[in-house]
Amino acid sequence: MAGVALNIVVGLVTSVLSGGLVWIWQRVGTTRDQRRRCAFFGLEPGGTCIVVMNNQWNKPGSTEHHDVQAMIEAVVLARRTGCEVITRSSDEFRDGNGDAVEFCIGGPENGSNVRTGGHLAHNLPGVVIQPFSDRPNSMAIDVGGDSFPRDRGNEEHVLVAKFTPTGAGRPVILVCGQSAITNHAAMYFLNQSYRRLAARVATTERFCLVLRVGSIRTYGFRAVELARDVSAAAFTR
Hints:
By secondary structure, the protein is of the alpha/beta class. The chain has one domain. The protein is 40% helix and 22% strand. It has six helices and ten strands, in the order αβαββαβββββαβαβα. It has helices spanning 2-41, 65-80, 114-123, 180-200, 216-219, 231-234, and strands spanning 48-53, 84-89, 101-105, 127-129, 141-143, 146-148, 156-163, 172-177, 207-213, 224-229. A seven-stranded mixed beta sheet has the order 2-1-3-8-7-9-10, sandwiched between helices. It has a three-stranded antiparallel beta sheet with strand order 4-5-6, with no helix packed on it. A hairpin with a 2-residue loop joins β5 and β6 (146-148). The longest helix has 40 residues, at 2-41. The protein is globular.
């Protein structure tokens, strides 16, 4: 009888210890993951994150569905790290980001996000976004002698960059896609793959990447992958 009681006690103690170790391991893993996320995006628990809203192409005052989803991804990412989130319109935001991390989403074409155009001109002099036209290079992303074209609805690209503007204390995360669905794809990819990207770039302090979104008609925004790290060329005039 004493042996049975001892076995029960041992079983209870083992269960408690196992549960405690699992909790500690999960806690350590969560804390480690939180630190990695903060380091990659420049976020800080208790800090502020600004999400800059763009306009639907050629329709001021409205935002395309996939751009809204991209903004939601940015908000969820920031809230996971304990940041306060502020949304600003790209038409009205005329200031530096200061001590707040800024997610600026959308390309500069046809007034979609005029702030993106300013960021590109002042911080990414090696990047050229071709204007929308009926030419084959319409909306192509040109950087470092390479051109990343847009095959609408099939294979498209999106530029993702992190940099800290002059006078700012925190970085800007710029997402400049050839369409709203590529903006969504980029934010989804950043949320899912920032640990892998951190191991691929030379430094997480500043980088510029081109992502490829393929088979859009089949897989939508989820078929996204890293096409090239163009950091060296993007920040060089």
